[in-house]
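Morning!

This is the sequence you dropped in the shared folder:
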Amino acid sequence: MKKKILFIITHLELGGAQKQLLSLINNLDKDKYSLYLCAGHSGYLKKEFANSFLLKVNFITELVRRISPFNDLIAFIKLYFFIRKNRFDIVHTHSPKASILGRWAAHFAGVKNIVYTVHGWPFHRFLNPLSRCLYVFLEKVSALITKKIIVVSSSGLREGINKKVSSSDKFVIIHYGLDIEWAERIFVKRKSGLPFEDLIINISCLKPQKGLIFFLDAIEMILKERMDMRFSILGDGPLKENINQEIEKRKLTGRLSLDGWVDDISGLLSRASILVITSLWEGLPLAVIEAVASGVPVVATDTGGVLDILEDGNNGIIVKRKDTEGIAAAILAIMGNYSGWHEKVITAREKLDLICWSDQRMAGLTEKVYQDILAL
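The structure's back. C-alpha cells below.
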C-alpha cells in the first residue's frame, strides 16, 4: 500500500526551496508514495504545482508569509482538519511559517512522522535579540515533535547544533540538487571558450533578505570605472516597486534591468560573465549551485552555506555581507582578468563531482529519511 506524504510550504515563488520541492516531487517513486501539497494560494509556481498530475494540491488562502494572528490561526485550523481527514504517514514541512504551523497541526492530528527541511534558519543575526530568542525557542519546541530535520548546508547544521535546536542525531544534511544534464549542456557551451557578454546577473527574490540595495550600490561604484557592463536582476517579490524606484533615482535605467522570474535560465547562464548573490542570510542558494555547475564565476556574500560549493579565489570570490566596496571590487577583479578567471572556473568545475549535486541524489537521500523514520 502506498504511503501518503503531505508537503507544506508557505509561498510558491520561484525560489530555491520551491524549486527543490518540485524537483523532489518529480523524482520520488510514485509506486511507493501518494503525494499531497498544502500551500499558500499565490506565487509564480502556483500553476505548475496545481497542474502536476503527481500530487493533489490544497491551497490555503490564509497561509501567508507575514505574521498575522488571525490568518495564522485559520491556516492552522485548516491544516489540522486536512491532515486529520487524510491520515498521512509523513508530513514534510518547508519554510519557517509553514513549518511551525504545519508541524504542530500534524502533531495534534496524530501524525507520528514529521520531517522539516530548513532552507535557512529564521533566527539570523539581523533580527533584534528578542525576535531571535523567540525563533530559537519556537524551533527548539517544534523539534521535540519532529522525527528528522534536514539542513541544506554544513553551516545550517552547525547553526542548529550551536543553538541547541535538537540533538545532532536528529539532523541530516541533504544539499540541493539540480538536473546535471542541464548543467552539463551549459558547461559545454562555456567551456568552448570566450567571449561572453559583459553581463552581471543577480538571481534573487525581491525581499530584504537578499540585500539587493548593496548590489545597486556596487553597480554605481562599478560604473564609475567601467561603462561597458550591463546588469540584470532576475526575480520578483515585495520589494519590486522599491527597487524600480531606486533604479530610476540612481539613473541606472539602461544599465540595470529588472527582468522578473525566468522559467529557464540556461540561456542567461550560457551568456553571463558573473553571478552575484548579495544575501544577508541564506541556507545555500540554489542559484550558486547552478552557476558553479555551469561554469559561471560567482561573487557571493559569506552566508555560510556557499562554502559547501564555492571556493574563494578558485571558482568565485566570497565577500562580507553589506560590503558594497568588496562586492564592486570582486566584480571588477574578475572582469579585469576574465580569461584567467574563466580558466580557473572551468578547471574547478571539471574537478567537481556533479553526481553529489544531482536532483536524483537529493531525492534518494530524502527518500532514505522517509524509509528510516517509517521503520522506527
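Headline: Residues 3-177+358-375 form a domain with the Rossmann fold fold (CATH 3.40.50.2000).

More detail when I'm at my desk.
O.
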